Amino acid sequence: MACSIVQFCYFQDLQAARDFLFPHLREEILSGALRRDPSKSTDWEDDGWGAWEENEPQEPEEEGNTCKTQKTSWLQDCVLSLSPTNDLMVIAREQKAVFLVPKWKYSDKGKEEMQFAVGWSGSLNVEEGECVTSALCIPLASQKRSSTGRPDWTCIVVGFTSGYVRFYTENGVLLLAQLLNEDPVLQLKCRTYEIPRHPGVTEQNEELSILYPAAIVTIDGFSLFQSLRACRNQVAKAAASGNENIQPPPLAYKKWGLQDIDTIIDHASVGIMTLSPFDQMKTASNIGGFNAAIKNSPPAMSQYITVGSNPFTGFFYALEGSTQPLLSHVALAVASKLTSALFNAASGWLGWKSKHEEEAVQKQKPKVEPATPLAVRFGLPDSRRHGESICLSPCNTLAAVTDDFGRVILLDVARGIAIRMWKGYRDAQIGWIQTVEDLHERVPEKADFSPFGNSQGPSRVAQFLVIYAPRRGILEVWSTQQGPRVGAFNVGKHCRLLYPGYKIMGLNNVTSQSWQPQTYQICLVDPVSGSVKTVNVPFHLALSDKKSERAKDMHLVKKLAALLKTKSPNLDLVETEIKELILDIKYPATKKQALESILASERLPFSCLRNITQTLMDTLKSQELESVDEGLLQFCANKLKLLQLYESVSQLNSLDFHLDTPFSDNDLALLLRLDEKELLKLQALLEKYKQENTRTNVRFSDDKDGVLPVKTFLEYLEYEKDVLNIKKISEEEYVALGSFFFWKCLHGESSTEDMCHTLESAGLSPQLLLSLLLSVWLSKEKDILDKPQSICCLHTMLSLLSKMKVAIDETWDSQSVSPWWQQMRTACIQSENNGAALLSAHVGHSVAAQISNNMTEKKFSQTVLGADSEALTDSWEALSLDTEYWKLLLKQLEDCLILQTLLHSKGNTQTSKVSSLQAEPLPRLSVKKLLEGGKGGIADSVAKWIFKQDFSPEVLKLANEERDAENPDEPKEGVNRSFLEVSEMEMDLGAIPDLLHLAYEQFPCSLELDVLHAHCCWEYVVQWNKDPEEARFFVRSIEHLKQIFNAHVQNGIALMMWNTFLVKRFSAATYLMDKVGKSPKDRLCRRDVGMSDTAMTSFLGSCLDLLQILMEADVSRDEIQVPVLDTEDAWLSVEGPISIVELALEQKHIHYPLVEHHSILCSILYAVMRFSLKTVKPLSLFDSKGKNAFFKDLTSIQLLPSGEMDPNFISVRQQFLLKVVSAAVQAQHSATKVKDPTEEATPTPFGKDQDWPALAVDLAHHLQVSEDVVRRHYVGELYNYGVDHLGEEAILQVHDKEVLASQLLVLTGQRLAHALLHTQTKEGMELLARLPPTLCTWLKAMDPQDLQNTEVPIATTAKLVNKVIELLPEKHGQYGLALHLIEAVEAISLPSL
Question: Which residues are recorded as modified (Phosphothreonine)?
Fold first, then answer.
């Protein structure tokens, strides 16, 4: 309870505000960074402050010091103001200003804290050369009745060197501007309404006072409040509509010309005061002499105090009623950001007509009223001393003044004299703190001797002066008037102390009573740490040291704290000393604080704590009842009860207790009311769960379950009206407390009955004990599964708890749900430890059935007394609503356990690369999560597991087919070609197929194969969208999409994928490729599409597959019925988001021609990227209709190209398709020369490559290009690359054989020309001489350089010539040439035979 400094707010980015106000500092930093290392980045936002300060000592010392001072002391050169409600802070310098607003944000440590963030920044000057001299943030009260006490809004008042005072909103919108004097504004101060503390204090009016070099203007607070509200409403209306004209009320102000004083620096407006009769006579004698007349009633006067020079402090008194207040017509100013309509509205307020007249009036300065002269009545003359600032105390009785001699002087305002002086405070900043006494903290024994008579008397008020000495970096708190220093803090040399001296404007004696706004009297802004702090001063520090019992008590508390920290071997001595100290403390609140600190000590043993608390309790009981504080007595009694409970539980846990009864499976079956088959099934499930649930728990050797320090025990529990409750503690702490009570009992090492009796008698409710028991059981799953005997202990414990009073209501009916069992079921539903939850549910069901049977037996026996009735056996179970709920829960937990076991299982497949997305751990399941996950929640969790394991879709299909297989070999017949991959993996899958099969059986509806494939497809595409570089995810997604059998589901999923993830990237890729006119480079792909060039190639290929699937699904969906989505009986109550499959079924039908149109574009893009084609602009292959239809909703009907296409388009398209065919043949057969089968083709990075020639023919059909031209070109390219056997096959598909024969004839000529002319062998030359001249001439005209493969055997060429002869009709012009070629080829082949 000492004086403290508290941090309550931080700055989010104070550096940005500094750089805005001081641009030269940023430039210096930048130039300094460049001087140090030119290669480093010059971006000032990327460098931290530490980086700038790192190399400063290397610079010249003076320059370095100057730079450092500028960087840290910049706040001293700014005008600073903080709203007392902490809603707004203004930092201004010259023409610029930054408005900061508080926001709740999470810090780096995850703690929520308030941070000041920049709300607005800009220039405030209207006239050229004017600068800000003073600023105030005034919160204005809300006029609404339902207001909670927060201000409605905050007005920023700014004074300028031009004499203008301007008023702004929090967003920097200028509301109004007033020129009340033509000299610079020196200081703005505000006074708001305060309820008078007692009748002797004069009620003060609200006002805003403005100090000029030779005048003071005071604006009436009520008038200002009304004007500001009207202006703000007008700005809002004008911004919205622009045609509202309302004349705001005029401002009422008084203007006093201060005389007989040289210079004025600062002022304080004390307010209205009334002199006592003696002071009235004294003043009248001083002014009017011996014969002065005196009025019967003392006149009311407004008092002003100024500081400056000659006199150092001047006192002015203005008689109320001596002058009429002046009325200023409010010249509403409008910020340039608002619309021109707002300017029209403003002109309407002032009666302006035209724009020309408006400009003239704006340029002309308003009329300035003359000041009423006011002479200084008296002062403190000190010719050498110059005052710098004055700060009025909250009670208006004292004022603190600073001067240029480094002194702080305390003035008595009423008497006008200096009553105290502090030395050595140069450049001091001052403020006040007013503290009100808390009546509850008074000593009861002393209440009767108090001057107030009883503890219900009025609260006393204390005033403390706060002085910040920046030269020494110290903040001091002094008790006034003559009190000691009560607090001192080292805060740094570059802070600013802010003392507003006012609260909220617009309150009165009625509204201020209901308002209790959170206001800060004083704040310290620290720019170095970027924090805002306030000072808390307890009232008792104002009491004198010698007489203060509280000061003595605080001394004893400090002594006690020091004693608790010391390590003493003699604990008895320490205990005795602590007892003496706590009994010596007088105040009950302090005594309670001391006892709390003792009980929180870790060094004192339990016996010490018990003895000290018992001693204090005995002492309090021995005193008179009236003088004992009831709260302290109750506190002691409660702590003593807790200590006794701790002792009892510790003793029970330490006893050597063991259950010697043997425990068999048969006993367990009877206990859980299960038959042998059910028990074996349960054990098998739990065994699988244990094997797969391989989570490693970190355990330390000194960690012991069931042990809890007494300090922690006392922190967790509290008594409230004789009922023991648990405080709000974390889950781990809750488990620790439960372990302390029940862990030994669950292990059979402590008496269960004794423990239950002890806890019940201590006041713990059965519901609370059940909650603790279940928290322990469910959190210690690993230990419980390893020790089946603990099930018996849980059964015993649960039975005992259920038999306690108020556990199960006696009036409970079997047809209603028991809250007791519902509590247990809820805990099992919420638990993520499914093994422990399933076991506890079985135990709960067994105990519930036993109790229900007993109750039913009682009722039954009462009904049929005297009659022969069959004895009710344990095997018989009374039917009740609870029983049905238990059975449902057991089924749900069993399902959840199987699912969790599956999700924990891992295959040993060695994938080449594991993505970071796949490495993320899966969340653990609980029944609650599955019930809240919606209908698709189960399939979604399995899909996430499949993604993590990256299984092939065939694995899911294989596990599903095993469901109906008679033997293991049968399903393998139906698996398609990619089964080879599965069979290779199958050896490493382990138990996964069995677990999957079990999950399919358990969830026949939720894990139906189409549903699972749909969720897997969606999961893969979602993960791909997070990291588009992982193209294999998208490929896998398409694989799952292909596996979906139902066309309705397939269509919906594909359409959702396209709209959600693909169309934006697809359109970006299209526009990029169209812009560059070729296959774009990696950098451009990453910039525009967000993935690399190789990933984009795969992306386009997968998009093409997806569009093909969409079209196929649209065709086949009419033949297939819409699937009915069922849910398992146990999971009918699921709630939550709609499943992916349900969303898919809601999708509209696609417009088939539009999808086909997109697939054509996709094929073109894919070809360009796949073969790195150049000089291709994809969109240039389409007319305007075709271009406009792209990237529209695939379900919408668009205007598509129809009819005959422009021949120019067809020509361009044909060239493109021939390019694709050439590139495809080149990619496939360019490596045949090497004859390496592994390099036969260059497949796409992911998946199987397309059949490009067939795709090109298909595209030709859709693009209105002759398909035969493409086929002929394909044949020609095959022969060109020397793949004659494939060429012969391809010839069969060509229709116009004659044209093809002509093309092949040329190719044959090129081959012969290369063989005869370019090899230039002797035999070749001789043969050439024997050839007919026409053939010779034709061969010489051939260019063999066009041939891609010149090493074709002559026998193969001979076959080609024969093929040409077959294709050419005899009447063809080149038939004779072909016959000559046959002879030439035969002649060439003869020498080789």
Answer: 901
